[in-house]
Amino acid sequence: MRDPIQPAFRERVQADWIDYNGHLNEAFYLLIFSHATDELIDRIGMDAGYREREKRSIYTLETHILYALEVKQGVEVEVRTRLLDLDGKRIHLFHEMVRPDGGIACVSEMVMACVDMTGPRVCAFAAGPMERLEALFERDRVLPWPEKAGRAVGLRKGRRQDIS
Length: 164
Prior knowledge:
This protein has 164 residues and is an alpha+beta fold. The chain has one domain (9-140): Thiol Ester Dehydrase, Chain A, CATH 3.10.129. It has helices at residues 26-43, 48-54, 127-140; strands at 9-12, 56-67, 76-86, 90-98, 104-116, 121-122. Strands 1, 2, 3, 4, 5 and 6 form a six-stranded antiparallel β-sheet that branches. Strand 5 and strand 6 form a beta hairpin. The longest helix has 18 residues, at 26-43. It is globular, with a radius of gyration of 17 Å. It starts with 8 loop residues before the first strand and ends in a 24-residue tail after the last helix. 23% of the residues are buried. The mean pLDDT is 92.
């Protein structure tokens, strides 16, 4: 099992991920964040073997994505992950996708839950994964709250229409 506190996840943008505007398609930003999340899940000890053996996994409950800068084909991006909060059953993650020039291309915020797959139903994290999550939280909780975290989707001065 890998140390849960290690360098950021990296991934190179593939040619078939590029859209008609010549940059990374919006769906593939989420794919890269998903790969970074999978890496974190493995690091806390809930890898494929654990999931098969213990019948516990992590399910995503909610995701928000904020796109800021373009990413082109062939660029290797870095995903920096922070654990913003946790309780015995859920985690609140914040990912930043960073381009080689240091620009923040995109951020993603996710709430995920530990799930007993025999139900399926939400359950408590087992002791080992919870200890590793708590170590990550101790590292991250002293950092300032990310400026882009906790945002709601909507138009600031938009009009709401009754569609009934």
